[in-house]
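Structure, all three chains, one model.
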Amino acid sequence: MDTDEEGEDDCDISADLLDASACASRRAGGARDRVILHFDLDCYYAQVEMIRNPALRTKPLGVQQKYIIVTCNYLARELGVTKLMSLKEALERCPQLVIVKGEDLTCYREMSYRVTELLMSYCPLVERLGFDENFVDATELVENRLKDTDISSLSFVGHIYKHDALAVDVQEHARLALGSIIAAEMREALWSRLGLTSCAGIASSKLMAKLVSGTFKPNQQTALLPQSTAELMGSLAGPCKVPGIGYRTGEKLKALGVLSVRALQVAPLFELASEFGEATAKRIQNLAYGIDPSPVTPAGPPQSLSDEDSFRKISTVMEVEGKVRELLSCLMERMRKDGRLPQTLRLTLRRSTALNRWFCRESRQCPIPHHTAHRVVTGCSDAVPQLVSIAMKLFHRLVDVGEGFHLTLLNVCFTNLQAKGSDRNSISSYLTHTPPTAAHTSTQGQDMVGGLSPNGPSSRTQTRTVAGVKDTHKRKELFPHTALSSSFSSPPSSSSEPLGQKSLPQAVQAHTPVPPWRPILEHSDEKRVDPGDSRRASVLEERKGPDLPPHVDPDVFGALPEHIQMELLASFQTGGSVPEDSTEAQGSAHTSRFAEQLTVHPNREGGSRHRESSVSHSNHSMAHNDDFSTEHAQNEELCREGQRSEERHAMEDAAGVPVAQTSHPDIPPNVDPCVFSQLPPDMQAELLADWKQRRPTLKVPSKLATKHSAARAGKPAAKGSQSNSLLKYFKPS
DNA sequence: CTGGGGTCCT
DNA sequence: AGGACCC
């Protein structure tokens, strides 16, 4: 009933809005502006790694996947490391970079869903984008709060794009201001409950919320006044910087001579339409104006689960089978925890073709026999060989092994996931295979969070109770690694929290906050740790998790709903029974920390009320005055871990050609610009021609702009009654 | 030598 | 089955 607030019947609003778009207060029909929040976790993988191992907080940290540093913390960024930089260049720029491997996404995935889940406890309208971003449609939340808010005492939290927060007429933007307050509360919850810092953007569409959320980068939030829409759009470097306009579309636009967002705005529609079709043409042109009517579409459980690995070379059937088995057994475990039945198996591979591998993947898929699927979900061990056998058949449909082959990637994917048990039945079916210890802990499903009432739409409150019960039991299955299994050593050295926190200047503390409690993520790849290395082993122990008083059974604790866990942890702390981290726990002073952290900003100067641009980049000066030298030995240790692996040849590339490496717009994404730039011009031209030829016609950019209208109507009914709630993923019913 | 995931559309 | 998009 409540799922759709904003009717998006107005498909053809473009003409109406183009001229009026900058106008905030067209409140014609009864349609009011939405209040959309966009949350973006700071350097996500790096943050998770720093939570797992707090010793990393004070070091420049990069997360490595194969030969790439996929992300890095802000210390590393100050030293010249960027996202998606090659390992080689990262180490050239920052020899002291500490590297952790991040190819196993388990921890990132788990924490990601906890984030979404937490946001959903405020308001069900949450849409995920990747692992580290979420949209929230807070319109209803705002509307409800508006009722009992004294509008004259209202003020914005955080920045306001290109405005002085103190000079803005809050009355005029009361709903946006409330949005900023709610965003701040949610960010505070992400911090206090999960230990994660984030950025947020507050605007009236997904597009603008996302764009504005990045304007003040680590751990800050920014609201966009409607009248600043054009300025923000105009500030973008090019059309492909508009979310929803990707690389391919950007290239096509270039070919049309459309090189800027402004050019896209004023491009004759018919020209765009001849290239992209009318619908797409209108859509991307609207995007250029900052117009994005696409709704926040609540995420359900994932539509597919996949696992993949890339490598230099696999060229025998035996190797393929070994890799496929490895991938499938991991994937099966995930599938089993999910609980749904996979009905389709897809095998994808990438071949190494002589000159290039243009990211061409080929795939074959087939149905999974019911009995096999059922074994997957029940964890029956002979499901794996059955799946492997199926996958190998798919493989042989893809590859004629007689010819010889050279693969560089294999992917296995379960799709067409069927929720078993239509609705209520599954509760009992679930309970039957649930750990008995948790059974008595069932509670009513109170999902109040942080004192915020869980949303107005009053939507599915009756299923919530059920959901709460299910949560009690399901948590352990979903996040088995987060369930506090058996042994806990209290983080001995982290009471030390030592040089790190206390000796740092305040500005640094603001950027390297220490959560009130440490979320627990079990180290999923401990096999990588050299057992003979005592130092690293001790580092490992530090990340075990929060202390539980000895009388608390970790398994029981782990089976509790998260918010109950939180409350218990808080009570442990206030009860003074927690020896560790007493410095950070500072009482359970969430509140003071909240005020301190959110009403102003990390770099606030002297507690003044400056919330604005004055504050913007002062953080870049901060880390340089720190003395990290004492940690040098350990850094080397950790660095060696990163390098030791078979990837050495990555380092022995051509000389340091000065060409920039990231996101080169003019050459194929898999071509090293350094190498490319050294080719003779005619060869460059040939490569480019060949490359461009490969892509036929442009497809419609999707996501942000495309989902309105019929969007999700045709989806499989697998989700049962609560088709817009992620909760059922955690507490499937 | 640019990961390891995801989404939806055609 | 592949292609576009997102991170």
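The mean pLDDT of chain A is 67.
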